[in-house]
Amino acid sequence: MAKYYASSISSSLSSSSSSSSHHPMSAASLSSGAATSSRLLLPSARLSLSSSSSRLLSSASSFPSLKCLRSSPRLPLLRSNQKASAMSTVAAAASDPAQLKSAREDIKQLLKSTFCHPILVRLGWHDAGTYNKNIEEWPKRGGANGSLRFEIELNHAANAGLVNALKLVQPIKDKYSGVTYADLFQLASATAIEEAGGPKIPMKYGRVDVSAPEDCPEEGRLPAAGPPSPADHLREVFYRMGLDDKEIVALSGAHTLGRSRPERSGWGKPETKYTKNGPGAPGGQSWTVEWLQFDNSYFKDIKERRDEDLLVLPTDAVLFEDPSFKVYAEKYAQDQDAFFKDYAEAHAKLSNLGAKFDPPEGVAIADGAGEKFVAAKYSSGKRELSDAMKQKIRAEYEAVGGSPDRPLPTNYFLNIMIVIAVLATLTYFLGN
Asked: Where is there biased composition of kind Low complexity (predicted)?
């Protein structure tokens, strides 16, 4: 729900006719009028896909499993070469850590080729954002349980266009059978934030999938973009999930990604100077100038409201109008580090809402990739190395078994040979 306005955001993906452009926070397809109140504000519900993704998602015939999904709400989105009986359920087992790591690398490559960061953020938000803290029973309480893969939930107004996100991640799911949908959705969302320049999200995995469409939550649990009383609406939705005012504002900052398309969401301009050339399919209106860069510019731009080419929804504007929200919005506009810290915590909390973990404590896949690189450990020169060079040196160093915390393994045989050679040399010179 970090991007509960997701429906209004369009990722850089250029979608097929069924897709829509939305931001990770506009989970609902941000349509105007009464319909708007029924749509979520999570990450882009309707996205515009890049040319490469466009070809990938151009027709259901390329994804036979989508035909199954449309024809039978009881079937998850799977490849046609899998048996229907196998498609109707997903094993409730912990995800395999090794496969999770590999899946994360595949997601990174997907992001680089399709610029689909906003829609993947929205995918994770929408699966988790249905959580109701007042319901204890799993999976009736909703939350991050993989239910969004079923057609009945995909057809919720707030989820318009998310079928495109499923098309993007399904090949990864097919490749890694040891990863649950619930984990894959949250892994994709967190990775998208990090790869867009955002903070490292303290994630854990091992979420169990629901097994049937009957486990999907009822429609109407996600936020809208233009409700009559924006502040009251945001609190009603997010308080139900157990989130507070600080987390509402922090998660709203995810609107820094994506754009909205009026023909799909009912909000935004058809095109601006920032979106007319893409990347991805051109058009739509973004919240920020660099709408694929995760930073605190959303808060700066909403506060100033000087650029008519940047989108400001009622639920955006209220962050600087409501006294409680304003405290955090002002803080984040001035301090990006504070925003990143609070966002990472809120996103992680959101991703765990309603989830059932196996094992109960969850599984961590952190591998040290986020630890600080200290150039002094690799170079004695006075000049600071570039980030690219640091990464290259580190990769080569770790490839032979080293790390900033662990010296290279000792080659005792080689050391012995060196000692013998030195002793022999000294004996020779001393003897003469």
From this structure: 7-29
